[in-house]
Amino acid sequence: SVSKFTLSSKQENATGGKSIFIWEDEVISLIDIAHERGTTVKVENLFYNTPARLNYLKQARTEYLKVSQCVQNFALSYPEIAFWLEHDGKQALYFPQYQWFLPRIASILWEEFAKNILEIDYSFSGFRISWIISNPKISFPGKTKQYIFVNHRSVVSPLISKAISDAYNRYIAHGTQPGFVLFIEVDPTQVDVNVHPRKMEVRFAGESTLFRAVYHAVEDILKSVSLISSSEVRNDFEI
Fold first, then answer.
1. Cβ atoms 239, 107 nearer than 8 A
2. Fewest CB atoms within 10 Å of the CB: 9, 147, 206, 219?
């Protein structure tokens, strides 16, 4: 309703694709098209008909960086799907399809990070948690390499971030941060997504239990790594 919006898509076994064009909440056209398998979303003239929202937008580069981050979040969460982003008529991002998320982590977060990771897979009280965390021999000045996904959706959880940060406290230099990509699978009824207007921050049922589980899972693997040489924990791979 606030843009000129076109969505084009083709299912894997379909002979052709469909394209729908929506303008001001009205379907202008729905046509058959030739389209590769997958989906293309095109948004033009965003907020052209809502001046208050248009004025709220930042500079074009700032808004582009937000869109870029959104695409990268999807790419991390779904490595089996290829993603690309066009900006000003040029391809700005491209992530080929992978069956394993480590090459995608290397392309988004940093190859050296992907070569120095520790993997954890943990289940308890209805939670399935799988994640990769950085080997404590590397750390980062900020929190830009920290991602949390709940049922494949990118979220913010101060509770989980603190649990991981506390576990790293005596293993990395003061003032630096670990890197991690955390995937949580849980019954949606056990997650409150209405904490924040943008639904980015979430809260869980049994948060104290979750905090202790995450903290001890990370601390246990960091303890084990501290007992062996760095050459034995290096995780090399080919992209």
1. yes
2. 206
3-state secondary structure of 231: helix
Per-position b or e across 66-93, b if 16+ CB within 10 A of its CB: eeeeebbbebbbbbeeebebeeeeeeeb
* Tens-place pLDDT, residues 149-161: 999 999 988 999 9
Half-sphere exposure of 35 (CA within 13 A, CB side): 21
User: Cα separation of 98 and 82, whole Å?
Assistant: 8
Rounded to the nearest 10 degrees, how much is the dihedral formed by the CA atoms of 234, 93, 145, 183?
-80
Spatial neighbors of 100 by CB under 8 A, at least 6 apart, are: 79
Q: Is beta strand 153-155 parallel, antiparallel or unpaired with respect to 146-150?
A: antiparallel
Q: What is the pTM of this model?
A: 0.75
What type of residue sits at position 56? Y
The burial of 55, by beta-carbon neighbours within 10 Å (0-12 exposed, 13-18 middle, 19 or more buried), is given as exposed
Q: Which amino acid is at 159?
A: L
Adjacent-strand bridge partners of 140: 177
Kindly report, residue by residue over 80-122, the tens digit of the pLDDT: 899 999 888 899 999 998 867 788 888 888 888 888 888 888 8
Q: Do 185 and 151 touch, CB atoms closer than 8 A?
A: yes
